[in-house]
Amino acid sequence: MQYRLMGKTGLKVSELCLGAMTFGQTADEAESQRIMNRFAEAQGNFIDTANVYTRGVSEEIVGRWLQHQQRDSFVIATKVRFGMGDGPNDIGLSRKHILSSVEASLRRLRTDYIDLFQVHAWDPLTPLAETLSTLNDLVHKGVVRYIGVSNFRGWQLQKAIDLSRQMGWEAFTCLQPQYNLLCRATEYELLPLCEDAGLGVIPWSPLRGGWLSGKFRRGMEPPANTRVGSNQDNWNRHNNEFTWNLVDTLLEIAEQSDKSAAQVALNWILSKSVITAPIIGARNVPQLEDNLGASDWSLTAEQIDRLNRASEMPVSYPYDLGAENQQRSGRLPQIKA
User: Fold this and answer.
1) In terms of CATH, what superfamily is 3-214+261-300?
2) Which neighbouring-strand residues pair with 180?
3) DSSP strand E in 97-193: where?
4) Has 188 been annotated as catalytic?
5) pLDDT for 47-66, tens place per residue?
6) CB-CB contact of 334 with 191 (8 Å)
């Protein structure tokens, strides 16, 4: 496993991050423990969870596992924002909810500090200064090492960056957005912003909920025992020529490279210089094993170009302006104008 710096910080994380959303849900505790053991054996040191994953159960499973590890060898990330109770202050990014949430996460994780504490989404009801000043206090208190953000829009993230700079507060070190071959709108604003501001990028759903795993082929019926097959709206939304053309290309390159489709889709993300670590989620050890195979090799420039073209998204004003210069730079994937 290779390691990458988290944005402009000196924090080194494995280039694949283990997502713990499945823990206590599709993976029971015993299997979750085996998944984390295998990830650690592969020299992975970065584990991402959230307080709302199985209403705290995911954090508890990670915490019980962490008790038997060298704590400082791992970078543990969790999140705050969504509801953890029925009370009026059990949700959001107010000072009250953040402080009560971080205390609860520390208890569940059985640790005295959180390496990366992320706000899970924008809160339109709480002043941004209240949220950022509270996060700043947590870092200076020592219970949080770094702060990050997930699911912000470009203007929201830039506003937070500017306010932190103006006030001299600890700044966000990374963004956790959705990004994959079927979701490239992240390239419009968010990835250029992160590159400009020096933020790490840790994409969630790099396989688009299984669509890029190689399990689904043109002409097949949706399998009932999968996340995709159990959601008819999801199937209908992606069951089109664009998706199947991309999947066909993905499978061809996988066969050419003697890799799985999932490994190719993940390696495509890893080829982008702005990316720190895609978050891989696994229901079992064999699935994790396959995802781990995305590391320590590289797609060819021709293969990356084929995937870029197969996943090109048409854009309109203002994103068509300057697209040619962005393509020439090679720093970010191409966007079709």
Assistant:
1) NADP-dependent oxidoreductase domain (3.20.20.100)
2) 183
3) 114-119, 144-150, 172-176
4) no
5) 999 999 999 999 999 999 99
6) no
Whole-angstrom Cα distance, residue 308 to residue 268? 9
Distance CA 301, CA 304 (A): 5
Looking at residue 149, its amino acid is V
Please state, for a pLDDT cut of 90, what percent of the chain lies above it.
85
Q: What would you report as the CA-atom Rg of the chain, rounded to the nearest whole angstrom?
A: 20
Amino acid letter, residue 108:
R
How many residues are present in the chain? Answer: 337
Examine the pLDDT at 22 and tell me if it is beyond 90.
yes
Catalytic one of 53, 113, 179, 319: 53
Q: What percent of the chain has pLDDT over 70?
A: 93
pTM of the model: 0.92
Instruction: Say which amino acid occupies 26.
Output: T
pLDDT tens, position by position, 131-171: 999 999 999 999 999 999 999 999 999 999 999 999 999 99
Taking 50 as the threshold, does the pLDDT of residue 334 lie above it?
no
Please tell me the chain's helix, strand, coil percentages from 3-state DSSP, rounded to the nearest 5. Answer: 45, 15, 40
Q: Are 250 and 265 in contact (CB under 8 A)?
A: yes
Q: What sign for the dihedral angle of Cα 211, 5, 333, 49? A: positive
| Residue 138 near residue 117 (C-beta atoms within 8 A) | yes
Compute the distance between CA of residue 108 and CA of residue 97 in angstroms, rounded to an integer: 16
Question: What is the phi/psi pair of residue 258, to 5°?
Answer: 60, 45
The CA distance from 265 to 301, in Å, is: 14
For the chain, the structural domain boundaries read 3-214+261-300
Angle made by CA atoms 188, 194, 198, in degrees to the nearest 5: 155
What is the arithmetic mean of pLDDT over 106-111? 98
